[in-house]
Design a protein that fits this description.
The structure holds 2 protein chains of 2 kinds. Chain A starts with a helix and ends with a helix. Chain A has 16 helices and no strands. In chain A, helix 2 runs antiparallel to helix 10 and helix 6 runs antiparallel to helix 8. By secondary structure, chain A is mainly alpha-helical. By secondary structure, chain B is an alpha+beta fold. Chain B has 3 helices and 4 strands. A 4-stranded mixed sheet of chain B has the order 2-1-3-4. The chains are: A mainly alpha, B alpha+beta.
């Protein structure tokens, strides 16, 4: 399916720009063009399909499903968190809406972790770029990290860690107009335009960095770092990921290059989860509902769970 | 004079985009309207919605959540009573 891009990038580099074959610069450039075409095509298709599917799962429906299924609310919250459209500035009203609907704090926190961390578009991209096994590892461990973190945070005394107004809010029931097929398609096209319009520059930068790693950074060098990091590689990758604020789709081209240079999959996925689940802009948004103590606890629990998940994924992929 | 508000919990990309599109339409169509951005959780909650940004015209909720509608649709939302 992607052969056409090889032809195009080949043609552009060696015929249009008449560069020499086998040189580093020409190879890096070819990689860059090839990857840009591939990633933007994939993104367009995946965002469209997923937006269409999730137009059937608006947040109000998610809330109703969760409040009606209290016994399995946590795993359900994690999976619905993956599916539900999420912009980090909606995190606060969503959380309040859930609490008001009587959904347990554990389930509400599970949702809050899963929704930004396990991104369905990133899942689609992982599936197309790396195959089923890695995509399942990302989904499964992402869901487990969210449930485990949600469970632990839900054990805390809510009155001491959450701003009190959260429990006093009465949300009016705002109903959403039902959508026609035409609406859903328009909605999905809008979403493709808006998401790509927002992140294309980051993707270009990431593909550029990926291309650089691919063409200029020797495999021995990356393997050397990973080896000298030893067991510390996973926590280090997680810690480096926290101050880097990216969405998981934007960081994928870098992840792809790192994996091809010998970085273990669990280490790479831990890095990816940390960049999306934990970030300073996210903390500032969460500060509107959480007391500073809870933000520290939140970061510690989610961060440690990501590290454990990274080790487990590395272990599983070594064995298999 | 209409009062158009774009309400959200933080100044995120979607809110900024909506604000820019609305401002452009108001200017291009010479609408008698003030456009303001309101960053306040409590304002969001007042309208009983869980997703941002909100487009509110004269106190009436016209749209909420991402993706925001196409510019043409936003124009219709601004014009209607």
């Amino acid at each position: 399916m992607f052969e056409i891009y090889e032809h195009i990038s080949n043609y552009m580099v060696y015929s249009l720009l008449s560069m020499e074959k086998g040189e580093r610069l020409s190879e890096a450039l070819e990689f860059f063009i090839h990857d840009s075409l591939k990633i933007f095509t994939l993104l367009t298709i995946i965002i469209f399909v997923i937006s269409f599917i999730r137009s059937y799962f608006p947040i109000e429906r998610t809330r109703d499903i969760l409040s009606k299924n209290k016994t399995i609310a946590m795993p359900l919250a994690a999976f619905l968190g993956v599916l539900t459209p999420f912009c980090s500035c909606s995190a606060v009203p969503m959380f309040i809406g859930f609490v008001e609907a009587g959904i347990s704090l554990s389930a509400a926190f599970t949702f809050l972790v899963a929704s930004p961390m396990v991104n369905e578009i990133a899942l689609g991209m992982l599936l197309s770029l790396f195959g089923l096994k890695i995509a399942i590892a990302y989904l499964l461990f992402g869901v487990l990290v969210a449930m485990f973190s949600g469970f632990l945070i839900g054990r805390l005394d809510p009155k001491r860690v959450i701003e009190s107004y959260v429990f006093e809010v009465k949300l009016g029931a705002q109903s959403r107009q039902s959508m026609t097929m035409k609406d859903r398609i328009e909605h999905s096209i809008n979403n493709v335009k808006q998401i790509i319009g927002r992140i294309w520059i980051y993707i270009i930068v990431a593909i550029f960095i990926g291309g650089f790693i691919h063409g200029y950074v020797p495999q021995d060098f990356v393997e050397g770092i990973v080896k000298s990091g030893g067991l510390l590689a996973v926590p280090l990758a997680t810690l480096i990921g926290i101050p880097l604020y990216s969405n998981s789709v934007g960081i994928l081209p870098v992840i792809q290059a790192l994996i091809s240079k010998g970085v273990p999959i669990g280490t790479a996925l831990a890095f990816m989860m940390a960049t999306t689940a934990l970030s300073f802009p996210e903390f500032i948004i969460l500060k509107q509902i959480m007391k500073p103590r809870l933000i520290a606890i939140f970061a510690t629990i989610v961060g440690s769970s990501i590290i454990v998940a990274g080790y487990l994924i590395n272990f599983l992929f070594q064995v298999s | 004079m209409k009062n158009v508000q774009i309400i959200s919990t933080s100044n995120c990309k979607n809110c900024e985009l909506l604000y820019q599109i609305v401002s452009k339409i108001v200017e291009a169509k010479n609408l008698q309207a003030t456009v303001e951005k309101v960053i306040d959780v409590k304002e969001v909650l007042k309208y009983g919605v869980m997703t941002t940004p909100l487009l509110v015209v004269d106190g009436k909720l016209k749209h909420f959540g991402a993706p925001i509608p196409a510019p043409q649709r936003i124009e219709e939302l601004l014009m209607e009573d």
